[in-house]
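Subject: for your reference before the review

Hello V.,

The reviewers asked for a structural picture of the protein, and I figured it would be easier to keep everything in one thread rather than splitting it across files. Below is the amino acid sequence we used in the manuscript, unchanged from the supplementary table.
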Amino acid sequence: MKKVLFFIESLSRGGAEKVLSDIVSHLDKKKYDVTVCTVTDQGEYQPVIEKHCHYCSFLNMKDSNGN
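And here is what came back from the structure prediction:
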């Protein structure tokens, strides 16, 4: 099994984020162990990404805002 890491600033609304979510959702889970890593853990595509692969982020924006 090949390991693949995608790194992107966030998963907010944007073209690159949409394309990344499409790629991750269509990769063969038997061939690839996929991880998506972001700088900030926010964005509308985060639930889609978490559904299809491993997800991690460097900064928890909820904690930095006091929420």
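For the response letter, the relevant points are probably these. Residues 23 and 49 are 10 Å apart (CA to CA). Residues 15-26 form the longest helix (12 residues).

Happy to draft the paragraph if you're swamped.

O.
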